[in-house]
Structure formats: C-alpha cells, structure tokens
Design a protein that fits this description.
Blueprint lengths: L6 H12 L9 E3 L4 H16 L3 E4 L5 E5 L9 E6 L2 E5 L5 H20 L11 E6 L12 H7 L4 H6 L8 H7 L18 E7 L4 H4 L4 E7 L1 E10 L3 E2 L11 H17 L7 E10 L5 E2 L2 E10 L2 H22 L3 E8 L3 E2 L2 H13 L4 E6 L4 H5 L5 E6 L15 H18 L2
This protein binds (2S)-amino(hydroxy)ethanoic acid (HGY) and manganese (II) ion (MN) (3 copies).
Length: about 425
C-alpha cells in the first residue's frame, strides 16, 4: 500500500494544540484538569470524531478513539500518548504520539480506500489512546492514567493524591466532568493485543547518528522521592551563626549528594536530578524554616537504581542529624523498567525497511505511558529525533520530515499488527 502522510495537516494540528497553553508561546504549559487542558481535550475529541473514530473516555479522563475493524471481537491494537505539558515546556512531547497516531490512522484509512479494500478497515480494530496526566506536575505521580489502566496504582490511593493547593484528585477529576468509580479505569490484561507509542526521543542520539527512527527495546525505571528538612528559622540579622540550624544547608548538601551518587553508580545509565527545591518562608532576611526537595532517580537497571536510592536516603538522614534539622523522607514511586516485545520491535524495523528509513535499536531514558501499558499487553516505542536532544523546554523541536517519518513507520507497524 502506498501510504501518503498528510504532514501539513498534522503540523497544523500540532501548532493549534500548542495554543492551548497557560504560558506565552513558544513555551507550552497544559496541566491536567485545568481549563486549558479541558479545552485542548475538546479540540482533540473533535478531530477524533471527524476521523470517524468511536470516542469514549473513562472515569479518570483517559480518552479512547477506536477505528472499528472487521472483527470487533478481537483485542484491538492500540497506540497513543499524552498531551499534558509541564511548566514552560515544548509542543512535541507526547502530542506527536497523539496527533501522529491520529494521522497514522487517517493515512491508513486513505490508503485502504485508495487500494480498493472493501471494507477499507483492518481485521483488528485500532484504538488511539490519550492518557490522562502522564506528567507528574500536578499530583506528583507520572503516568496517572496508564498506572490506573494497568492496575499498578490502586484507585483509592489515586483518589487521595493531592496537588500543591491541597485539592485531591477525586474532587478535581469529578469537577472536570469525569465521574464514576476510579475502579472502572482498570483494563484486564489482554484487553489490547499490542501497544505501540510514537514519541520524540528527548535525547540527542538519533540526531547525532543522523538516523530517522529509534526502535525502543526498553524503558528506564523511574523513581522519585520527597525529602523535607525543618529548622527554627529566625531573623537573618539577629541569629548568630553559631546558633543556627539551617535546613537549607542540609538540602544543599543533599543536592550535591544526589549528583555524586548518580555519577558514582558505576554506569552512565544512572541519572539523578533535584527538580524541585522549595524554601519557606522564602524571604531574604529570614532564615529558612522549611525546605522541600523532590528528587528524580532513573536507570535502565532496577537494582543499580535502588542502590543509588538507598545511598541518597541514608545521606538525607545523616545530613539532617549532623545539622540538627528534623528530616522526613517519602518515596513517591520506584517503578521497574519495561522491556519491549521483540515481535513489535521487529514490526517497527520491518516498517522502517519498507519506508526506506534508517533506524537503530535503543533504550528510552524518559518514562512513558508504555512503561505501564507493558502490564496490560506487549509494547514497543518508535522514537524520532528532536533538535539537540532538547525536551521539557520551549525550544523543543522535531521537524515535519522527522514527524512524517515517524507517522509512516507507526502506520505501517499498526497495519502489520492489526492483520
Ligand atoms: O519525565 C519523563 O520521563 C516524562 O517525560 N514525563
Ligand atoms: Mn515529558
Ligand atoms: Mn512524554
Ligand atoms: Mn514520557
């Protein structure tokens, strides 16, 4: 079949989606269940319906858009990603997998009609999924929608999650119009026959190697923890240095320790980041009273990551004790890595050959909804290059040619899997 991706239309839709943002362009910010997020969802549902897909959403707001196959009793093939965007980020993270997935389906619809298939639909249905809250920004947990879909996160634990304003997930999702028991979100294993996600690489390897496509063989194991130090605070002028117990000093030592622990793990595959450092009361003439760090640690090797986590937790306690500032340590998540299904990886590689695109196998250092979909069905991912490997920044960019190539490979892969 001759597949003609309408990249101009997909690029225009990506540009339109980026306008649903709470920060000025070129940055994008679209936090789950905000008015902006809900407006973006309405726009996407309109596009899905325009493509003749059967659209439904579940009680946490995951959206499912199904292209019914000739045998609807067979478990569908699925694709998809997320459209929420962290503060001051870019317009391609996640969205390429949702709008690119839509264009892959439309491309197959056009090609099957042109090839005279009757009916012009594949045997298995193909379902596009837009996952709620892949980013951890609002509720601290990444991949909320796919965690609930896979059963990895129990509904009552999810319901209790609260955001920085103390609003809990259960109330927020219901005010956003997603009502009904969260327990209804969970899918049974085998609900899908396969899941393939298209995503920008969020790293520099494909661009450096001048390759079109990455066939992802594994997804790194993400973990996050929260450490809080508290002290007496006081007047920046009146409290002598000998009398101070400053929690920010413990936090500063811990930030350096996170960096050292990741660098000294014995592998370049370990990464450690302090992405949140809140100082209260945050006044130049007031000694900090309450300091919060949120720490992200990842590795494609689970046990090695856990050794780094243990070192960080021990040092967190030690610094608090040495500086006389009470310490609380809370694990947010520590998930196992995921391995792609060899048959789907082979289908991706075959699609690259058929599309005359260069490709390599690689691991994903970012986590994705595929990490949790691997608990529901066999998975794999298709990466496309992004400029300088940049992501989670307004300068994030993937060219129309790169996105077009990714969509063609996704379309071919879905078609193979849906036979
Ligand atoms: O952090 C991640 O890996 C993903 O982009 N949320
Ligand atoms: Mn992201
Ligand atoms: Mn993403
Ligand atoms: Mn991701």
């Amino acid at each position: 079949m001759d597949l003609k991706v309408d990249i101009a239309r997909c690029s225009a839709e990506l540009d339109r989606l980026a306008q649903f943002s709470d920060v000025p362009a070129p940055a994008v910010q679209r936090i789950v269940f905000t008015e902006t997020d809900l407006a973006a969802r309405a726009y996407l549902v309109g596009l899905f319906e325009e493509a003749g897909l059967k659209v439904r959403h579940d009680t946490v707001g995951n959206i499912f858009a199904r292209w019914e196959g000739t045998d609807p009793t067979l478990p569908p093939v699925a694709t998809g990603s997320h459209t929420d965007a962290i503060p001051y980020s870019g317009k391609y993270d996640g969205t390429v997998g949702v709008l690119g997935g839509l264009e892959a389906i439309r491309t197959l619809q056009r090609a099957m009609r042109a090839a005279g298939f009757t009916p012009a639909v594949p045997r298995r249905s193909i379902e596009l999924v837009m996952f709620t809250s892949e980013e951890p920004t609002r509720f601290a947990y990444g991949c909320l929608g796919s965690r609930l879909l896979s059963g990895q996160l129990p509904p009552d634990a999810a319901a209790k999650l609260t955001d920085a304003d103390g609003q809990n997930l259960d109330n927020v999702r219901q005010s956003a119009g997603f009502t009904g028991p969260l327990a209804d979100v969970k899918l049974q294993p085998g609900h899908y026959s396969a899941f393939a996600e298209l995503h920008i690489e969020q790293g520099p390897l494909l661009e450096r190697a001048n390759l079109d496509i990455g066939a992802v063989t594994a997804i790194a194991a993400p973990a996050a923890l929260r450490v809080r130090y508290t002290g007496p605070g006081g007047h920046a002028g009146g409290v002598m240095m000998a009398d101070r117990r400053d929690p920010l000093l413990a936090a500063s030592r811990l930030a350096l320790e996170v960096d050292a622990a990741a660098r000294e793990s014995g592998s370049p595959d370990t990464v450690g980041t302090v992405g949140v450092l809140d100082v209260h009361p945050r006044a130049v003439n007031s000694i900090p009273r309450d300091v919060l760090l949120e720490i992200d640690v990842r590795d494609i090797d689970g046990p090695r990551r856990d050794r780094v986590l243990e070192r960080i937790k021990q040092k967190a306690k030690q610094f608090g004790d040495e500086l006389g500032v009470p310490t609380t340590i809370e694990m947010i998540n520590a998930d196992p890595p995921a391995t792609s299904d060899p048959a789907i990886v082979a289908a991706i590689e075959q699609s690259c050959v058929d599309a005359k695109l260069t490709h390599q196998r690689m691991v994903s250092r970012a986590y994705h909804d595929s990490l949790f979909m691997s608990l529901v069905c066999p998975i794999a991912m298709i990466f496309i290059p992004c400029r300088d490997g940049m992501s989670h920044r307004p300068e994030e960019y993937s060219s129309p040619a790169a996105i077009r190539a990714g969509i063609e490979v996704l379309a071919r892969t879905l078609y193979q899997l849906a036979q």
